[in-house]
Write a structure and sequence with these properties.
Layout: E1 2-6, H1 11-22, E2 26-31, H2 37-42, E3 46-49, H3 57-64, E4 69-72, H4 82-103, E5 107-111, H5 126-143, E6 148-154, E7 156-158, E8 165-169, E9 176-178, H6 179-190, E10 198-204, E11 207-208, H7 209-218
Helix pairs in contact: 1-6, 3-4, 4-5
Length: 226
């Protein structure tokens, strides 16, 4: 497969890129900062400089030509204000969806977040609330498009070594999950077309990744693995 990862220099994106290239896929990482190109090349990805806050849908569609799937892994990141949650976490995801449709690419996998789809808690600070609102709006936009979308909402992220075991259901994610395991789940989703149309919540759990993804695909009510 040829897979485009928007936000290719992100922590999950780089893990995913290494997994995909190791299994023989062709991976392109869209990045804003050209200084990150060498790191992506070292991971086995082909970097393309494309600032999703400044690009047009034509610009992005040109970078997507020939791809089988796109993964939205971009984010404003820690330390960014509420305004960039809108321009990156929401608007860039919308732009990628428009460009995918324009380029004739149907498969769209979105890295969302825990809490998306519901109002942020009353005690949430302004930036976290803006992030949840942005992710919710992005998810809703992608879900309304004629795309084979899958929305993945991970629990709190850690840099601990991956366990290879997760809980993947339609119920709101609680607890934590490693970035390694998120990348493994994304790689499995990309080769499981029957997960299209699902919103999946991800946390650490008892089920091997391949088994959890297969169960989600076969049991579209979102019940956990038995």
């Amino acid at each position: 497969m040829k897979i485009i990862i928007a936000g290719g220099h992100g922590q999950i994106a780089r893990r995913l890129g290494r997994l995909l290239t190791a299994q023989g896929d062709s991976v392109v990482g869209l990045i804003r900062n050209p200084a990150h190109s060498n790191e992506l090349s070292d991971d086995g990805m082909r970097p393309i400089v494309c600032d999703l806050e400044a690009a047009t849908s034509d610009d992005v569609a040109a970078a997507l030509v020939g791809a089988d799937a796109v993964v939205f892994a971009a984010g404003a990141g820690p330390g960014s204000g509420a305004a960039r949650k809108y321009t990156v976490d929401h608007q860039a995801a919308v732009l990628l969806a428009e460009a995918a449709l324009q380029a004739g690419i149907r498969r769209y996998v979105m890295i969302s977040t825990r809490g998306a789809g519901s109002p942020p808690p009353a005690h949430a600070d302004e930036v976290w609330a803006a992030y949840v609102h942005a992710k919710t709006a992005a998810d809703e936009h992608v879900m309304a498009q004629d795309l084979d979308w899958t929305i993945l909402r991970p629990a709190a992220l850690t840099d601990d070594p991956g366990t290879g075991a997760v809980r993947l259901t339609a119920e709101q994610s609680v607890g934590r999950v490693t970035r390694d395991d998120v990348a493994q789940v994304l790689a499995a989703l990309l080769v499981t077309p029957a997960t299209a149309g699902l919103v999946l919540e991800l946390a650490q759990g008892p089920d091997p990744v391949a088994e959890a993804v297969a169960h989600a695909a076969n049991n579209r009510t979102g019940e956990p693995c038995p």
